[in-house]
Specification:
Strand content: 25-35%
CATH topology: Aminopeptidase
CATH superfamily: Gcn5-related N-acetyltransferase (GNAT)
Distance between the termini: 32 Å
Strand order of the largest sheet: 1-2-3-4
Shape: globular
Number of helices: 5
CATH class: Alpha Beta
Number of domains: 1
Structural class: alpha+beta
Order of helices and strands: EHHHEEEHEHEE
């Protein structure tokens, strides 16, 4: 299994895995399939190269992309884990753990002691997974941008205590 950060040349792989994720679990992400499908090739190249501010990693097994994860720093300077997905056949194989570790390592390398994410507590598998990765639920809720009736809760992973002024 190879976990590697994307470059501009990986834009088509990123597009394929992201669209597959949005078809597989449309209510798990803040963007809809239709919006992502309408991104131009240039927008996908920017995303893959990290020029748009987000950074993405791909999980590749035997020349097949089986998962992805991203990160982005919010306006409040929160380092956020975003867009995690593993194809159904690869779930439970350790791919997700490797993807999360890539994000945690990148956060630390870039001076962030905390990683935030949003998840629907109704998504029991994801919630349980993130709890096992050392994340904990915070008392922060917001509607999912792509499906506003769904409320997502913030989770936090930290290598030290992060007070909200730092986050």
């Amino acid at each position: 299994m190879e976990i590697r950060s994307t470059q501009a040349k990986d834009w088509m792989l990123l597009k394929q895995v992201r669209l597959a994720a949005l078809l597989d679990t449309p209510t798990a992400f803040g963007v809809s399939y239709q919006i992502a499908a309408d991104y131009s090739d240039e927008q996908w190249k920017e995303r893959a190269s990290s020029a748009a501010g987000s950074k993405f990693w791909l999980a590749i097994n035997e020349d097949k992309t089986v998962g992805m994860i991203g990160s982005a720093v919010s306006q409040a300077n929160r380092y956020n884990l975003i867009g995690m997905w593993v194809e159904p056949a690869a779930r439970g194989s350790g791919v997700a753990t490797q993807l999360v570790e890539a994000v945690k390592s990148h956060a630390i390398e870039h001076g962030h002691d905390c990683v935030f994410l949003d998840v629907s507590p109704d998504n029991a598998r994801a919630s349980y997974f993130y709890l096992n990765q050392g994340f904990s639920f915070m008392d922060e809720w917001e509607p999912l941008a792509s499906h506003p009736p769904i409320m997502v809760q913030t989770m936090l992973w930290t290598i030290r205590d992060c007070n909200q002024a730092d986050a």
